[in-house]
Amino acid sequence: MDAETLLLFALAVVLVLAGIAGMVLPVLPGELLLFAGLFAAAWAEDFEHIGPGWLAVLLLLAALAWLADFAAGAYGARRFGASRRAEIGALLGGFAGLLFGASGLLPGLLLGPFAGAVIGELSARRSLRGAGRAGIGAALGVALGVAASIAIAFAMIAVFLFARFAV
Fold first, then answer.
1. pTM higher than 0.85 for the full model?
2. What is the predicted pLDDT for the residue at 104?
3. How far apart are the C-alpha atoms of 135 and 6, rounded to whole Å?
4. What is the pLDDT of residues 68-115, one digit of tens each?
5. For residue 113, which of 130, 132, 99, 94 has the smallest C-alpha distance?
């Protein structure tokens, strides 16, 4: 194995591990890093086993994981009967939680959508009970979105391994 191939494999391992960590730690773009790592591993073998079709499947899964992360808080708020303002608040709160909350770690990830949904619901209906339900729904939605992203991440790895070794 030449030095370039070894370097690409090492980069792939680092990117895949960072991508898995990024599925939980919102300061890292987990889906992008994971896809980049799997792409680097395919590149290390000159795309001999993982070609454009498999890369498209992996990219689609990465996009699905990103969508699950992005929309989960708003979806959870909606499922708990929140207004449109609360859904938008959950989305904006999710971004704020990523940027400003507790170094971007889990408290910011959960508290941002919760606070955004509560503020949005209070501005729409002025009901403290409804606002609390919207906030809880947003926080639960985010937690389920993270779980879905992690599941999709492992599905991406399984698809890669299947394409690499079974086909």
1. no
2. 47
3. 48
4. 876 777 777 777 777 888 888 887 887 777 776 545 455 667 777 888
5. 94
Distance CA 83, CA 62 (A): 29
Contact 139, 94 (CB under 8 A): no
| Largest interatomic CA distance in the chain | 66
In the numeric block, which tokens belong to residue 112?
Answer: 């941002």
Print burial letters for 61-79: b (CB count within 10 Å at least 16), e (below 16): bbebbbebbebbbbbbbbe
CA dist 96 and 84 (Å) reads: 18
Tell how far CA 12 is from the center of its chain.
Answer: 19
Strand ranges (E), the chain: none
74, two tokens: 């708003």
